[in-house]
Each structure stands twice: as C-alpha cells, then as structure tokens.
Amino acid sequence: MIVSNRPIIGITMGDACGIGPEIIVKALAHKEIYDACRPVIIGDAKIIKKVLPIVESGLKINQVNEPEEATFKYGTIDVIDMNLLPDELPFGQVSAEAGNAAYEYLAKSVELAKEKRIHSICTAPLNKEALHKGGHLYPGHTEILAKLTDTEDFSMMLTTPNLRVIHLTTHVGLIKAIESITPERTYKVVKLAHETLSNAGMDNPRIAVCGINPHAGENGLFGNGEEEEKLSPGIQQAKEEGINVTGPLPADTLFFRAGRGDFDMVVACYHDQGHAPIKVMGIEEGVNITVGLKGGIVRTSVDHGTAFDIAGKNIAEEKSMIAAIRSAYELAPK
Fold it and tell me: Rounded to an integer, what distance in angstroms lies between the CA atom of residue 36 and that of residue 326?
C-alpha cells in the first residue's frame, strides 16, 4: 500500500520509436518533479538507456520489476522493465513491436492503479498505426483505458496552467454533437468534473457550463431552445445534489472569466468550443486528461503525438510532459 504523501505516478513510455522516451528522460531531469511526486517509468529499460546519451543526460537508471523496488530519488530514473522490445529498434519508423509494447505498458499501468500501487497514470504518446499493426484495434489511449477499466461514462478534460475544460462531446461533427447532448450527459459530465476536483482535494469546486448557442441562446433569441432542453435540466439536477455549478453561460466571455480565476472548471459543449481556448491560452503546456474511469483512476497525457520526424534527434521539448506529470500528481486522489 502507498504510505508517502507524495503520490506515485506511473509514466508509460508510449511508442518507443517516437519522442516519448526522450521527453520522459528530459522531464525527469527536473528536481521539482521529485519534490512533488514519486515517478516511475513503465516501459523498456534498454530504450531509456539508449536515450540517455542522445539527450546528453547524466541520470542513472534503476531497473526494477515492481514500484515497491523503486528508490524515487532525484538523479536516478526508476524503470519497471517489461523487456518487450529488441535491442535494435530504429527511431522514427512504424513498428508493430513498439505498438504492442505501448499497449502492454498501458495495461500494466492500469493493473497497478487498480491495485492502488500507483496513484495516477501519465502517458507518453503512442502511434495509432503501430498500435493497430501490433494487434490492438483501438483509436487511442482513451478507448483502451475505458476497455481495461470497464468504463462507459468518461470524458476528456484539457488543462493549461490557468484553465480546465471538460467536454460533453468531442470527436464528432458539430450537428451530431449538438444532437447527442442530453440532460443526462450534461448531468454526468458536471458530476465527473465535481468528483475529479473533489477527489484531488479541492473544496467545493466551482463549475460553469457553456451555452450551445451564441449568448447561451439569450432567452430564445438564438437557436431553438437547446439550452433549456439539453443543458438546464442536467445542471439543475447537479445543483440539487449540492454541486456548485452555474450556467448555461455565454462561451465568448466564460473562458476569460475562468482564466482569471472565477471558475475551477468549464464544461464545453463540443470539441472546438473547449479546445480552441485551451490551445490559445497554453498549447505548449496543454494536457489531455481522461476522467471518469472506474476505480477513480486518473490518466494524464501530453497533448501531442509521437513526432517520428524528430525522434532520436534531441529536438523534442519536455514542457508538455512536465505539465502532464504535474497534472497527474495534482489530480491524484487524496
């Protein structure tokens, strides 16, 4: 069982042919991470060893089998070595072996999280083509996590240093997104937002819901009453349960208000409504978070891909990985 106040963060290595191993090593060179949490990589030690000279790192590696064997000391990288990859694996190429390994790292992290041997999961990027070639036909991390945790109701949350956004809908067209919003979905996502922040130790988190139409419909002037039909009943249900939620509010001013500190979380109705403000306000430190997974498991991720074109060249920056690790320990259940 976990006994320290610093949460253990399981960092999955992602696709070994991409920039994941590089940005992990670079991120773990920052002492403030060890001051706040206990990071352990779940991956292949041989790949991390190969990356050290590439990024000109003087860090050492502690190769372990379980998180309980880790030292969690700054200057030493603890790696749960799954030993799934060949010694010679080129950077920048799609590999079925790397795709399968990325899946297995994630599966191991879920197993450890279910057993409460790590607090949160932080994922380096995987490559969908490699994942499929490795025999795992999922769109990405989120769907794998939902399957492995037997979760149906989950949501995507995005964060920057000054803004948190959770979505009612994501990767569907705008017309279909609006059609699929229901009072039940609104209520569930507001509750997920409340539970996620409450579990992380935030007292009475302030949540605000965006309107669907301009000016949140302005009392029926814009749209066909979508706010009253699809949003307001779910918001009211959450309020009746004691959740501190406001809305629907005009999106064009809500994100500014949240950015200055009026709200702790914004509920966006569709993809671009939530993604655009996040990327304007902090794309370099943007973090993608999966919330609502069974067992209270929190997963954070860098908000970029494997970048095969620059992998192995010591070009990739670690800002997003540092932000993802930070979100993992900030949102870890207290």
Answer: 8
- Measured from the Cβ of residue 43, the count of other Cβ atoms closer than 10 Å reads 30
Give the neighbor-by-neighbor strand order of the sheet with 76-81: 60-64, 76-81, 38-43, 8-12, 120-123, 298-302, 287-291, 155-160, 163-167, 265-268, 207-210, 245-249
Q: How far is CA 22 from CA 68, 143, 235, in A?
A: 25, 25, 43
Closest to 234 in 3D by CA, of 199, 274, 194, 201: 194
Residue 140: the pLDDT is 83
Q: What are the residue ranges of helices labelled H in 44-83? A: 45-54
* Local structure of residue 7 (DSSP, 8 states): P
Query: How far apart are alpha carbons 258 and 275 in whole angstroms?
Result: 14
Give the H/E segment covering residue 20: helix 20-27
> Distance between CA atoms of 203 and 200, rounded to whole angstroms?
9
Give the pairing of strands 245-249 and 265-268.
unpaired
pLDDT attached to residue 299: 95
Is 281 in contact with 259 (CB distance < 8 Å)?
A: yes
Say whether 109 sits in a helix, a strand or coil: helix
Q: Which residues contact 280 (CB under 8 A, 6 or more apart)?
A: none
Q: What is the pLDDT of residue 4?
A: 63
Locate 205 and state its tokens: 């988190």
Q: What are phi and psi of 290, to 5 degrees?
A: -100, 120
Q: Cis omega before residue 21 (within 30°)?
A: no
End-to-end CA distance of the chain: 14
Length of the chain measured in residues: 334
Q: Collect all residues with Cβ–Cβ distance below 8 Å to 332 and sequence separation of at least 6.
A: 7, 9, 37, 119, 120, 200, 298
Tell me the C-alpha distance between 254 and 277, whole Å.
10
DSSP 6: S
Low-confidence ranges of the chain (pLDDT < 50): 1-3
Which distant-in-sequence residues (6+ apart) come within 8 Å of 179 by Cβ?
A: none
Question: How far apart are the C-alpha atoms of 210 and 228, rounded to whole Å?
Answer: 12
Q: pTM value?
A: 0.86
